[in-house]
Amino acid sequence: MSEQDVVLKIDHVVKRFGGITAVNDVSIRIAKQSIHGIIGPNGAGKTTLFNMITGIYNTTAGSIFFNGKKINGKQTHEIAELGIARTFQNIRLFNDLTVYQNLLTACQKNITYGLFDGFLRTSKCKTQEMSADKICKNMMIEVGLSEYKEQKAGNLPYGTQRRLEIARALLTNPSILLLDEPAAGMNEDESLQLSNFIKEIRLNNDITIIIIDHHMDVIMNICDLISVLNFGSLLAEGTPKEIQKNQRVIEAYLGVDE
Ligand SMILES: Nc1ncnc2c1ncn2[C@@H]1O[C@H](COP(=O)(O)OP(=O)(O)OP(=O)(O)O)[C@@H](O)[C@H]1O
């Protein structure tokens, strides 16, 4: 992979929590417009890596570069503004707001009118509200949520809540979307639908997707490349086919007899 093809470079990154080394000298290059999987047994350091990419944790050592610019040490909102969005292991929607209202919250960064404009309903206020309305409606069409527009997020089926969460993240126009276990708790049918949905997102947007998941059907179906972590270290990297037959990966998942 040439440097120009790399959108995110994780370079010798380490994260320690007291005596625990959660991520141990990990280097991964993520190609532009790829779907890249991060897998590994429980506690392997996957979410910690996401937390460092998004600025929730600072790195203990090493660097992370987004389009060639160092981002570790930046605040979460600065990283989000640069174009890295994420979803979390536990769905984080506003359950009492409707689908439409949840999406509107993601358009706030485009709203610049103040209290005065809002009170007097100035043209600036109306134009910005109309634009946010259009953006949200288009997104609902794109991701198949229009029929749920007025439903409260908390009442939606699980798979639809995930879809809404991803749609809301997409409204920030990210270059990179990080999905942390989006298929958690899904049955086979739901995870197949999610796989197709993620593939469509990549097809319809100029975007790179990095996904953590324990559902191997999803990972093997959608990823171009997979990085495998084990006890905080990078164990293997390759295409789904290569990873499936990698003996070290199989042993890490199944364990080896002493
Ligand atoms: N804030 C923290 N303080 C202390 N230890 C932490 C913290 N966050 C993570 N860890 C530890 O770091 C290690 C890696 O955790 P992490 O959550 O990144 O693993 P994971 O691969 O995402 O696991 P899972 O698949 O179960 O979500 C674990 O031993 C975990 O207990």
Task: Describe the secondary structure blueprint for this structure.
Blueprint: E1 6-17, E2 20-31, E3 35-39, H1 46-53, E4 61-66, E5 69-70, H2 76-82, E6 84-87, H3 99-105, H4 115-120, H5 123-143, H6 158-170, E7 176-180, H7 188-204, E8 208-212, H8 216-222, E9 225-230, E10 233-238, H9 240-244, H10 247-254
Parallel strand pairs: 3-8, 3-9, 6-7, 7-8
Antiparallel strand pairs: 1-2, 1-4, 4-5, 9-10
Helix pairs in contact: 7-8
Bound molecules: adenosine-5'-triphosphate (ATP).
Residues 17, 20, 22, 40, 42-48 line the site of adenosine-5'-triphosphate (ATP).
GO cellular component, one term: plasma membrane
Domain ABC transporter: 8-256
Protein name: Branched-chain amino acid transport system ATP-binding protein
What does this structure look like?
This protein has 258 residues and is an alpha/beta fold. Helix content is 38%, strand content 24%. The protein folds into 2 domains: 6-83 and 174-255, Rossmann fold (3-Layer(aba) Sandwich), CATH 3.40.50.300; 90-155, no CATH class. The protein contains 10 helices and 10 strands. A hairpin with a 2-residue loop joins strand 4 and strand 5. The longest helix has 21 residues, at 123-143. The model has no long low-confidence stretch (mean pLDDT 91). The chain binds adenosine-5'-triphosphate. Residues 17, 20, 22, 40, 42-48 line the site of adenosine-5'-triphosphate. It comes from Tepidanaerobacter syntrophicus. One of its GO terms (biological process) is L-valine import across plasma membrane.
